[in-house]
């Protein structure tokens, strides 16, 4: 029996996608073998790759002057790839600088990696209030020589989401791992978008990159081959053997999203799901949200109980009720419900009903 999965990643996948993969697992397209067992350079798999790229382009309305890349190493790999690929026009190590907004643990990891290859200017930080809000542009302190401007539109751990796209003069780079495909994106405002797959795209093991063509020639000369966007683009993301099964499953998710009505439909659903949960939390004295209302994520909803001694009991009973993976990240504690595209509205309704009952019994 399938249960409701609120895991932050690897996260829930659409049930129709899982069923199709199950049906095709042993005999894909009457080839007598699995899609995992054929060459990535075969005509059959090249068709899968090209269809996945086109579907993603359709979903996000990606302009023709952007390359779509399917990469390895997850978003963490891209923390390194971003400076390696964009610092090449910045002179010596001491002269290279990039702007970063610091909004939590994933931004911090990206910042630490960039500092290995150049200087990082912290444009703004929400550390002063324990990363519970997204800093507005009135607080920025940009560097006019920055090679690029990096931010994390949605912080998975802290549950903070930007409600605007930064307007900057240098290439804008975004780690959209946890909110990509959840709403329309003005791709033309970005130089680079990257996202680990295991939240809204597909299974872990693959990442997506959307890179504007004019940024492919800014690499540092010593860049590792596996991190070069230009090499990946020139090779159709097949410079080496890619994670074919993850690519295939991601393609099935893209097709499922189009069948649901695309990112516009996902945005409406995300609003319904998150509003239902936040409105209940705000109306309760037993539960509370640590995130400022203007910065609350639609994808990741952290919340705490008035008495943290009840946390263990809450989680145990929730699991018994078929509500999985509600434990908050180890660094912040409490609870967290991740409401990615594949999480149905019924899951949130079941969660709220459980929370009402738990409060009555234990509050």
TrEMBL record:
> Quick check: keyword Methyltransferase in the entry?
no
Q: Which PANTHER family match?
A: PHOSPHOSERINE AMINOTRANSFERASE (PTHR43247:SF1)
Write out the residues that bind pyridoxal 5'-phosphate.
75-76, 106, 156, 175, 198, 240-241
Molecular function in Gene Ontology: O-phospho-L-serine:2-oxoglutarate aminotransferase activity; pyridoxal phosphate binding
Q: Which residues carry this modification: N6-(pyridoxal phosphate)lysine?
A: 199
- Listed NCBIfam families: PRK05355.1, serC_1
Which pathway, metabolic or otherwise, does it act in?
A: Cofactor biosynthesis; pyridoxine 5'-phosphate biosynthesis; pyridoxine 5'-phosphate from D-erythrose 4-phosphate: step 3/5; Amino-acid biosynthesis; L-serine biosynthesis; L-serine from 3-phospho-D-glycerate: step 2/3
The reply on keyword Zinc is no
Role of this protein = Catalyzes the reversible conversion of 3-phosphohydroxypyruvate to phosphoserine and of 3-hydroxy-2-oxo-4-phosphonooxybutanoate to phosphohydroxythreonine.
UniProt cross-references to InterPro entries, sorted A to Z: Aminotrans_V_dom, Pser_aminoTfrase, PyrdxlP-dep_Trfase, PyrdxlP-dep_Trfase_major, PyrdxlP-dep_Trfase_small
What is the superkingdom listed in this entry's lineage? Bacteria
**Which family, according to the similarity comment?**
Belongs to the class-V pyridoxal-phosphate-dependent aminotransferase family. SerC subfamily.
Name of the gene encoding the protein in the UniProt record = serC
Subunit details for this protein? Homodimer.
Going by the UniProt record, its keywords in alphabetical order are: Amino-acid biosynthesis, Aminotransferase, Cytoplasm, Pyridoxal phosphate, Pyridoxine biosynthesis, Serine biosynthesis, Transferase
The note on cofactor binding and number reads: Binds 1 pyridoxal phosphate per subunit.
Reaction catalysed by this chain?
Answer: O-phospho-L-serine + 2-oxoglutarate = 3-phosphooxypyruvate + L-glutamate; 4-(phosphooxy)-L-threonine + 2-oxoglutarate = (R)-3-hydroxy-2-oxo-4-phosphooxybutanoate + L-glutamate
Domain Aminotransferase class V: residue ranges:
4-351
A single Gene Ontology biological process assigned to it is: pyridoxine biosynthetic process
- Entry's EC annotation: 2.6.1.52
Which metal ions or organic cofactors does this protein require, according to UniProt?
pyridoxal 5'-phosphate
Descriptive protein name: Phosphoserine aminotransferase
């Amino acid at each position: 029996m399938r249960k409701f999965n609120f895991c932050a990643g690897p996260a829930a996948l659409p049930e129709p996608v899982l069923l199709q993969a199950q049906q095709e697992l042993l005999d894909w397209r009457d080839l007598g073998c699995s899609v995992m067992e054929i060459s990535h350079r075969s005509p059959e798999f090249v068709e899968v790759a090209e269809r996945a790229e086109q579907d993603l382009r359709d979903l996000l309305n990606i302009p023709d002057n952007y390359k779509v890349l399917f990469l390895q190493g997850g978003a963490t790999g891209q923390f390194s790839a971003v400076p390696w690929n964009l610092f090449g026009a910045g002179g010596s190590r001491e002269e290279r600088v990039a702007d970063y907004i610091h909004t939590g643990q994933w931004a911090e990891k990206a910042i630490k990696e960039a500092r290995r290859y150049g200087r990082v200017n912290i444009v703004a930080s929400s550390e002063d209030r324990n990363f519970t809000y997204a800093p507005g542009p009135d607080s920025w302190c940009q560097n006019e020589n920055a090679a690029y401007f990096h931010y994390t539109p949605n912080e998975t751990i802290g549950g903070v989401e930007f409600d605007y796209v930064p307007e900057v003069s240098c290439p804008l780079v975004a780690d959209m791992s946890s909110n990509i495909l959840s709403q329309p994106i003005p791709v033309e405002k970005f130089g680079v978008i990257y996202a680990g797959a295991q939240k809204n795209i597909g299974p872990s093991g693959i990442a997506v990159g959307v890179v504007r063509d004019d940024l492919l020639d800014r690499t540092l000369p010593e860049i590792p081959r596996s991190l070069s966007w230009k090499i990946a683009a020139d090779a159709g993301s097949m410079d080496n053997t890619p994670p074919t099964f993850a690519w295939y499953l991601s393609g099935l998710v893209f097709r499922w999203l189009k069948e649901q009505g695309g990112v516009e439909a996902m945005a409406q659903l995300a609003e319904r799901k998150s509003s239902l949960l936040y409105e209940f939390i705000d109306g309760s004295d037993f539960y509370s949200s640590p995130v400022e209302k203007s910065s609350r994520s639609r994808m990741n909803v952290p919340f705490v109980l008035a008495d943290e001694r009840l946390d263990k009991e809450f989680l145990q009973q929730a699991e018994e009720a078929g509500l999985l993976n509600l434990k908050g990240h180890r660094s912040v504690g409490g609870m967290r419900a991740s409401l990615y595209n594949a999480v149905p509205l019924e899951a949130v309704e079941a969660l709220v009903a459980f929370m009402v009952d738990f409060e009555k019994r234990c509050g």
